[in-house]
Structure formats: structure tokens, C-alpha cells
Lipocalin/cytosolic fatty-acid binding domain-containing protein
Amino acid sequence: MVILLVLGLVLSLANAQFSRDFTVQKNHNMARVSGTWNSLFMASDNMTRIRENGDLRLFIRKINILKNGSLKFDFHFMVQGECVAVTMVCEKTETNGEFTVAYEGENRVWLSETDYRTYVIFYMENIKNGTKTHVLAFYVRIPKFEKSYLKRFEYVCKIYGLDSQSIIDLIDKDNCYVVPKRT
Ligand SMILES: *[C@@H]1O[C@H](CO)[C@@H](O)[C@H](O)[C@H]1NC(C)=O
Ligand SMILES: *[C@@H]1O[C@H](CO)[C@@H](O)[C@H](O)[C@H]1NC(C)=O
Ligand SMILES: *[C@@H]1O[C@H](CO)[C@@H](O)[C@H](O)[C@H]1NC(C)=O
């Protein structure tokens, strides 16, 4: 009995440790996140904001790290059938991988995880009119669905308390997407 309790405690401590390390992964090399990205999935605890006509339904184009450490996101979204470009400069904070930006309220943005080469996951906390909303975004270098991406995203969403029903698929939903010229 005692052994089981101790084992349980050790396991829950291990889990707590894991999720803390996971959500606040240190030492991201932000420069390597620069470049072209495509939105593949999003998730939120308020679906209205990421569904069609949602104010946080944004399609990523490009991420650049600026000289002063800010992170510049080039997005576009649809407004009444028109593609609108929006640039968001997220100011860096004292915490590595954490940024703030005003857009449809106040936001705190974290780079959750990335392999730099194929995918990146951002986590955002939005406060608009006193209401807090959590959003996760999964971006890929090459706009192509992979089962393993969805599995990974589901796993990460769960850590942030969002189940798979909170996930929307953005592939082929990007009406502004123009196939880039091969160089
Ligand atoms: C979800 O977002 C919509 C649109 O901004 C808002 O009207 C609604 O109150 C939000 N719901 C919750 C539960 O925050
Ligand atoms: C960093 O540079 C960008 C672009 O020049 C600017 O918009 C932003 O305000 C700067 N941030 C800080 C903290 O100086
Ligand atoms: C903000 O919240 C207040 C109080 O809940 C509400 O009366 C007001 O209509 C909201 N404003 C917007 C823009 O949603």
C-alpha cells in the first residue's frame, strides 16, 4: 500500500516535471524558426474564434526574427471574400521563446515546440474584453497532411487541456494560397 502510494507520487511528480519542461522548453534557436510556413491545424477553447470568420483564424505565410529579438509573423485571412494581409510583430519578453502582442486583445505567445525543419507549434493566450482564450497553431514547412503531425498536435493540445474536438484542419481551407514558384 505504502509502496503503491510512493510510486504514485513519484509518477505524478515525473509527469508534472515533464509537462513543465514541455511547455516551457528552453533555448529555442529562434533564428531557425524563420522562413516560410503554412497553417495545418489550429485548436482553441473557443471554436468561434478559429472557425470561418473567426478573428483568430489566421493563415501563416512567413516568420522572421528581427534584430531586436522581436518575432514578425506575416499572416493573411479572408474578409468578405477578400484576402487581407496582416503583419504582427511580437515583442520578446525576458523568457526565451515567450512574446507579447496586441491583436484582437492582448496576447502572450510561446513557441511550444519545433524541429525547425518540418513543423512548429505556437501556443497563445488571448485576453479580449476580459475573456481569456487559448489557441494552439501547428505550422508546417510543406503544406501536406501527415498523420504523424495530427498525432503530435493532439498530444500537445491535450497537455494544454484541449481535446481533439477542439482541433480544426486548415489544409486546403486557405483560399488565398498561391502555389509558390519552384526555384
Ligand atoms: C467565444 O468567442 C465569441 C466571439 O468572439 C464570443 O462572442 C463568445 O462570448 C466567446 N465564448 C466564450 C465562452 O468565451
Ligand atoms: C523591434 O523592431 C520592430 C521593427 O523595427 C519594431 O516594430 C518593434 O517595436 C521593436 N521592438 C522593440 C522592443 O524595440
Ligand atoms: C465587453 O464585455 C462587457 C461586459 O461583459 C459587455 O457589456 C460588452 O458588450 C463587451 N464588449 C464587446 C466589444 O464584446
About this structure: The first helix runs from residue 2 to 23. The domain at 31-169 is CATH 2.40.128.20 (Lipocalin). Confidence is low (pLDDT under 50) at residues 3-24. The pocket of 2-acetamido-2-deoxy-beta-D-glucopyranose (ligand 2) is lined by residues 66, 68, 70, 89, 91 (CB under 6 Å).
